[in-house]
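Extended Data, panel c. Modelled sequence:
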Amino acid sequence: MRLKKPQGTEDILPEQIPLWRYLEDTVRNTFERYNYSEIRTPIMEFYSLFNRSIGETTDIIEKEMYFLRTREHEEGTKDLLTLRPELTAPIVRAYLEHNFDKTRSFQKWYYYGPLFRHERPQKGRLRQFHQIGVEVLGSYDAFSDVEVIDLAMTLLRLLGINDCQLDLNSMGCPDCRKTYSKALREALEGSVSKLCENCQQRFNKNILRILDCKDKRCYEISFNIASLDRYLCQRCNEHFRKVKKGLEDNRIAYRLNNRLVRGFDYYTKTVFEITHSGLGAQNALCGGGRYDGLIAQFGGPPTGAVGFAMGVERIIEVLAAKKRIEPRGPSVYLAVTDESLKSECYKLLRELRENLVSAEMDYEQKSLKAQFRNADRIKARFVAVLGTKELSKGTVTLKEMATGKEREVELKSLVETIKE
């Protein structure tokens, strides 16, 4: 039986890596230009971290967590460990655990890493996937929201992904949502049996999620119900007005979407989503918003916060359709005319590498002709031929692969010649 990778996971092969590295480099350059610092948290956390933050009635908590069995875990006495399904909660945990709330409360952080959810594998949705994102901690300012949205749109534009749709909404504060949830429950009370099975459960547990349901029946039933923006308090209304004006003043186009509620319980006020038409049903590239209550919920002081997350695999899918980035080959490939010269060849190889010149040689005992074919396959810029004659003279024959030009170069000046 041949070995296979687990369902819902993917191997990122060497020929795919250049596109991933292009994305990673663009992310780091862009985020750091906006003065965000990178943070890395463990891929495993305690289950209670997510149970408290995401919400007990979300699909992630109910169906999608990966748990780790450990010797230390005893049922009922030790918190379960889980593979992280999202990164906002771990970052808030790190913020509090390292006392940033007491020392330097305002922080702008970004992350890049793998996440895990036990979902039904399909195009654009894996069980191990990657996200990039940012979190601004310690600010209630509406312009924090504007900057986060601006950063997300700027990154996509710099990647060459221009045909995106930005949807925007406000979920208000807990008081706004409480009032709206009551009105929504009254409006839907006579139609509960017509809702899909998930939304029948949401009616009592998390009624706002009904607005986000993709089932046609649920959409039609809730279509004409008054939207949440009519229930926003004065403070939430004013915050949302500033966010919209900030986007408009900076010519960042958006579409108001009063059905956008996002999937996690911790969101407050601004929520947004960026979609791309070329991805089919799973078309969301980015989602985010404000979560002003989460830090206090974890035992910290009342603290404003806002952020977003982007799905790396979906961005890669869009990029792969737009551009191909070829792997970068070594600067020089060392070819020998005789196997007896391998020892001298490897000494030269080490010298080149120690002088920061990327270099490669043959390890398969190929003929000289086959070595040239291999150099061409791996896209080496030069081939340096070392033969008995050349070695006795202290030279190599250097061929530039793009032009076919050859010249004799002294061994002692090969590094300098390649660098030039």
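The chain has a mean pLDDT of 89. This feature is highlighted in the accompanying rendering.
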